[in-house]
Amino acid sequence: METAIYLRVSTDTQSTDSQRHDVERYCQLVDGRNLHFYEDTISGGKASRPQLDRLVRDMRKGRIERLVCYKLDRLGRSLTHLALLLDEMNRLGVPLICTSQGIDTSNESACGKFQLAVLMAWQNSNGR
């Protein structure tokens, strides 16, 4: 099982270096083994992205233990897409950790579970 690291920038004039540094530092503190990077250069508004699609396939195959990203908006800008992705991750038992926002949906974090529940409830109230 691997820790998936998802990095994304919108244009090729941007760099993922600061995201990478932050998530690698977090992973070294927690458990720096078996890191697998997925990196896209594409708008977060697009639901289909090459590396995110590969990440989802790997999660479905049971290869991913947890997903770490710098910030929730790196996964996506569309709340609907995020809600669907987070719902699938929850069903697959893959926690999400957003290092810069204190989000951790693993069983060890009641606060992160609460944040996820609020996000999902807000999405459901807006006509998912």
Key attributes of the depicted protein:
globular, 128 residues, five-stranded mixed β-sheet, alpha/beta, Rossmann fold, 5 strands
Could you explain how this protein is built, in words?
With 128 residues, this protein is an alpha/beta fold. The chain has a single domain, classed as 3-Layer(aba) Sandwich (Rossmann fold). 46% of the residues lie in helices and 20% in strands. The protein contains five helices and five strands, in the order E-H-E-H-E-H-H-E-E-H. The protein has a five-stranded mixed beta sheet with strand order 2-1-3-4-5, sandwiched between helices. A hairpin with a 4-residue loop joins strand 4 (96-98) and strand 5 (103-104). Helix 4 crosses helix 5. The mean pLDDT is 87.
